[in-house]
Q: What sequence folds into this?
């Protein structure tokens, strides 16, 4: 008998536990949990691994959905492949955050990449992703990958003219990620990038966080020659429409020549979608004006 | 004092009522309700009008979200403007379902339209949309609009070579809409359309209803020369990614010349998005193979 089944008056009662994420004060998503695999207050945040019926194993940080086995491919492919196909020869790549390893897995699909450094402040995210999300974290032990448990903001501040592509795979700007949404951080990224470098940052959603998108775009525009916003559909993230900000010193993601795309295995990204993802709904485009 | 406030031991307790739509057996959305404006079992379905904190007034049919004041523009604009800008001169338009009036409101933005007929089987949807969703239903009394409370399937069956554009704005294929997802219905639409006519139907979502999309595409392809699928982000609909099927006898929505677009006021649709909406995520495009 599973622990959630109880007998009462000779009848088996099956309890059903649901996790609800309040994505705003007045709206959320709710899903059936089969079991909680791990729960702990780390040095930096509350970490839960749950097994959900609809989405498979799922990582929560501070009660917010970070990634799930069923829909993780959208976020990880769209963070990685848009900048990596924009840059003509990405060799040295940095991922800030992203301790679940999903972005790294996608980065390694590009044969030009010689080294991929992951800097996540919370080693527990890496540890439990390897244990409970092997489909996502399974490439963290690849010889091309350098995993560091460290403060991404400080790592960026110490880097100079080093990376071809930097990807910021952070949580929301609360808790440990609050520094990763500042103009000082974007200036540090510009310094850490080579002279033709490019960076991407997840930028939340236009339905509930319009101000955040507007502010990030404004700040990045002051520092990078080319600033762009693109979107993707992620069903377990607030509003289902997720935004990503690109800051680039030289290469425009909208002007990638067709011969630059090589074959990779994906479930969401295509070379046609590479450009279509930048064609924004009118109310989203209006945020950038 | 509002009805949901109670006193206990001299303290005011504020109760909070939440509506949860189970979009699948194991996943759903949940939102705070300020009050229920109307609830009734009509001849065809359960109808609720609720005032939500996040989305404004909202229509539910059989406990499923149909439309809300805050995000309705996405669905209504994307149903209407994609086929109407594809057809070079739409004059006579039919909307099947759509008793909330949102698609009609968008149709009337096209000056070429001389007549727009709405056929909804449930007069109560029309009546209560006019009362509680005036921003959406407000154009149903326009002199160009002919509102009929009738069976859409039968109306289509009786029509011959009559319409330039037909839009199927139905509920899911349960309850009164079950006939609207059959090959017989699509054949009837082909007959009801003029020789260069075009139709669009909402086709649910690729995350939870992949089979439905695959089946609709297969059936429509057998009848129409040009069959296409496009998507839009609707946060209150399952998965946030909604699909629409186009069946067209002559005009391809991907080959609309730029001079055909005239200025209209929109919040989601743009002439660039008209084409980008057809660029599908890989797993969605794979459903059509």
A:
């Amino acid at each position: 008998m599973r622990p959630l089944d109880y007998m009462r008056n000779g009848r088996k009662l099956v309890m059903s536990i649901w996790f609800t994420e309040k994505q705003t004060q007045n709206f959320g998503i709710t899903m059936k949990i089969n079991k909680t695999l791990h729960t702990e207050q780390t040095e930096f945040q509350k970490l839960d691994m749950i097994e959900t019926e609809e989405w498979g194993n799922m990582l929560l940080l501070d009660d917010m959905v970070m990634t799930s086995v069923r829909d993780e491919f959208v976020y990880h492919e769209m963070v990685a492949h848009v900048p990596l196909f924009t840059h003509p020869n990405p060799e040295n790549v940095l991922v800030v955050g992203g301790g679940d390893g999903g972005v790294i897995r996608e980065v390694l699909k590009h044969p030009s990449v010689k080294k991929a450094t992951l800097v996540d402040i919370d080693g527990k995210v890496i540890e439990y992703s390897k244990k409970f999300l092997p489909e996502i974290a399974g490439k963290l032990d690849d010889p091309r990958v350098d995993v560091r448990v460290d403060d991404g903001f400080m790592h960026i501040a110490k880097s100079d003219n080093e990376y071809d592509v930097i990807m910021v795979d952070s949580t929301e700007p609360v808790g440990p990620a609050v520094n990763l949404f500042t103009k000082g951080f974007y200036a540090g990224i510009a310094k850490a990038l080579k002279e033709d470098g490019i960076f991407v940052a997840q930028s939340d959603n236009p339905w509930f966080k319009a101000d955040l998108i507007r502010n990030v775009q404004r700040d990045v525009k002051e520092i990078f020659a080319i600033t762009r916003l693109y979107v993707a559909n992620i069903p377990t993230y607030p509003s289902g429409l997720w935004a990503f900000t690109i800051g680039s010193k030289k290469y425009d993601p909208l002007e990638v020549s067709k011969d630059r795309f090589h074959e990779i295995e994906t479930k969401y990204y295509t070379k046609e979608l590479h450009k279509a993802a930048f064609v924004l709904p009118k109310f989203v485009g209006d945020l950038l004006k």
